Amino acid sequence: MKSITLLRKLLGIAALAAPLLAGASQAQTLVVGGKNFTEQQILAELTTQLLEKHGITVQKRDGMGSTVLRTAQENGQVDVYWEYTGTSLITYNKIQDRLSAEDTYQKVKTLDAAKGLVWLNPSKANSTYALAMNRDQAQQLGIATISDLARVMGQGTKLTFGSNAEFYARADGFKPLSKAYGLDFPRDAIKRMDTGLTYTALKNRQIDIALVFATDGRIPAFDFVVLQDDQRFFPSYALTPVVRQAVLDANPQVAEWLNKLSHTLDDATMARLNASVDVDKQAIQQVAHDYLASNNLI
């Protein structure tokens, strides 16, 4: 009889403990998100391997559009991904003020905290938009800045511009850039294409100017020159891990791990990692593993 009573007690304890154990398991399963271009895919893989090294079960969901990814995080469907300060400031929070890099970070950190999102330490990688040209053509035309570009075009030189559709249509994109610098591209001189194709089109001389990301590894690999944004039109796009507050409450150590990774990243590092994939055609998983290992992060 005592044995039966003891067994019932043990079964009762096990039944009570089961939900708690299940909850602990769920707390240790995180969804890592990423956007639909190389840099973001690398960052998603870096984050996945880093968290898995520390015993976290990860579901990776990259290849998403910016707005879809942000909405998924706000809804709790994505726990962590790397965002750009300028994107949150302008696209998600609708702030049009021109702020310094530090003020941009502090502003989005405060605004997004109200939405349950925590901006961890920003990296030194500023993946801002930029305009690039083939170096020889830029030198031949005497173009080093975007103001130089506007001047040369104003003198009658016809040049074509390759841009992705998002930047062309954005409220903070092509039209305000053109207004700020006095750029006057005829409609037929604007070629809209996927982001990755702008680099190939510029390399193959199918366009004269391309919209690029400043940390893209194809810029040095293809010997492009980035035109100086002398009017400081483009905001800071500091690459930063963003995590849901609820996740950090359950897993506070995640902030420490991601901050260590963020500390290692700068423009040159991201350009090198991007080039490893886009130019050297290495597998993203291997590039991420080698980088984490070389920095003693795994």
Mass-distribution shape = globular
Give the strand line-up of the largest sheet. 7-6-8-5-9
Along the chain, the helix and strand elements come as: HEHEHEHHEEHHEHHEHEHEEHHHH
Would you count the extended β strands for me? 10
Which structural class do the helices and strands define? alpha/beta
Residue runs with pLDDT of under 50 for 5 or more positions = 1-27
Provide mean pLDDT, rounded.
90
The N- to C-terminal Cα distance equals 54 Å
Summarize the main sheet: 5 strands, mixed
Explain what this protein looks like in three dimensions:
This protein is an alpha/beta fold and 298 residues long. It is 52% helix and 16% strand. The protein contains 15 helices and ten strands. The chain has helices at 2-27, 38-53, 66-74, 85-92, 101-113, 135-141, 146-154, 165-169, 174-181, 195-203, 218-221, 245-250, 253-263, 267-278, 284-294, and strands at residues 29-35, 57-64, 80-84, 117-119, 129-134, 161-163, 190-192, 209-213, 224-226, 239-244. The strands form three sheets. The chain has a five-stranded mixed beta sheet with strand order 7-6-8-5-9. The chain has a three-stranded antiparallel beta sheet with strand order 3-10-4. A two-stranded parallel ribbon has the order 1-2. Helix 4 (85-92) crosses helix 5 (101-113). The protein is globular, with a radius of gyration of 23 Å. The protein starts with a helix and ends with a helix.
Salient structural properties:
298 residues; 5-stranded mixed sheet; globular; alpha/beta
